[in-house]
Amino acid sequence: MRLNLVLELLDVPGQLVSVLEPISGLGANLVTVIHKRDSKNENGKIPVQLTLEGEQESLNRVIERFEELNITIIEKDGVINKELVSTILIGHIVDKDVRDTTDKINSLDGVYVVGFDIKLDGEDKSTALINLETDYGKKQFAFDEIAKIADEKGLLMINEV
Amino acid sequence: MKECKIIIMGFGSVGQGIANAISLKKEMINEKYGVQLKVVAVADSSTSAICQDGLDEKLLIDIKKSEGKLSAYPDCGNNMSGIDVLDAVEYDLLMEATPTNIETAEPALSLTLKAFEQGKDVVTSNKGHLAIKFSEVIQAAEENGVEFKYEASVGGAMPIINFTRETLSSCGIKSIIGILNGTTNYILSRMTSEGSSYDITLRESQELGIAETDPTQDVEGIDAACKTVILANSLLGIDATYDDVTVEGISSITSQAIDLAKKDGYLIKLIAEVSQDNLKVSPRLVKKGSSYDVNGTLNMATIKTDLAGDITVMGLGAGSLETASAMLTDVISILKNKY
Ligand SMILES: NC(=O)c1ccc[n+]([C@@H]2O[C@H](COP(=O)([O-])OP(=O)(O)OC[C@H]3O[C@@H](n4cnc5c(N)ncnc54)[C@H](OP(=O)(O)O)[C@@H]3O)[C@@H](O)[C@H]2O)c1
After folding, report:
1. Which of A54, A68, B24, B121 has the greatest number of C-beta atoms within 10 Å?
2. Is residue B88 a contact partner of residue B112, using CB atoms and an 8 Å limit?
3. Of B21, B107, B71, which Cα lies nearest the Cα of B326?
4. Which residues of chain A does CATH 3.30.70.260 include?
5. Looking at the domain B163-316, which fold is it?
6. Interface-testing mutation among B282, B285, B287, B310, with chain A (most A C-beta atoms within 10 A)
7. Interval B177-224: pLDDT, tens
């Protein structure tokens, strides 16, 4: 069987070799490699597209090995890996239309609201915790866009470090 | 025998800590570095004690504590203060610990520039002049060929400026992210452990003397923003001033926010971020158990480097003797260089 992977590598000499090396030893064959050196992502890393061929077991071993080596897999057979992030909003969230806030977040490309917890502080301000799933590499984009929404609505946004 | 004649400007918590530290360590310094430290003048806001033969550090502290002013020092007390003191006595090094002022930078700015003109080295714990006129002050020190050190201005006793410059000198610094204000860290830690509201926790901190009567500088993030500027200039070579920092304090943090964060495995901390594209102080979510999970009045900072990866330092960000320790270390490094 075939497996398509998109990995993310540091742009330093030797990185690619160190990734390709374990493959044959684990019983899989490398079919294609596309190394896009000119498309660095926001972490300063470059995506590398691989197609592998082999028994399911060998392919699983390759993936395990990559994980051991702390290599980020962005995409597996066309499915994009997700990152989970959280943010907190404080302010007149209810008055400023909660539904509209979550709709606006959901309409962002590659950003999905997967959890929403709100606490009211009497008549006063309320606080919401929003759990998000973002496509790999879209985290900063999500924070930047939500910051704009929060700003429009006069909400304080507390982001992850 | 070599001698280093010192003036201490500002005799509050830090100034008295300096006197205390000198009295505790001058023998060790003499033995190890062959230089005798001698305090020749000490000044508060309106009076001073001046004696070319040296003052007694312990007596200075006793007098300031019991009489409230230095003019009461036997024989050497007088009503001279501020910049005039720099002309009244022969000295080698100014240790400056007057109040931080981020509007005018005074009295630190004039005192420091005057000492430079006189060819004297300066060690400071003050943030005001550094936050609004960093490059001007550094340039003046260079032009006059004198040493200027300010380790204590960021993080009190926590090593960061000298540590990064000297111990990490092989590395490029990508960013520094940290908790640079002990008061707000205390308030947020208490809100987390007690579930109490911001207002109640602030009041409790004021009663304990951790927060000041006017807590604005701390809780609105101003103090942390000054430190952000100092780190940006000194360690990342960013020519920034206070106005370049985006600042959000902790006064609108609700106990509900802390609760929700906790349920999700996070804590809320006032975080300073220093990088080429971000100079920012704001409340942020940090993972429980991460290196940012530091409680009470402690400060911490993670220095992200190109060669060494991430390095985290932690320590007491304030305190009389603690802050003075950083200043005395600065003095020692000047002694090693010049004496
Ligand atoms: N406290 C800390 O743990 C800590 C930590 C790091 C950095 N710092 C910085 O260190 C500096 C000193 O802090 P501190 O806590 O010691 O403050 P403090 O307790 O308020 O003491 C300030 C001292 O400066 C004197 N002073 C005021 N105006 C003066 C002037 N024009 N000329 C000479 N002396 C003057 C005051 O005189 P009077 O005694 O007559 O009022 C007082 O003795 C500040 O810049 C602060 O930001 C403090």
Report:
1. B121
2. no
3. B21
4. 2-80, 82-159
5. Dihydrodipicolinate Reductase; domain 2 (3.30.360)
6. B285
7. 999 999 999 999 999 999 999 999 999 999 999 999 999 999 999 999
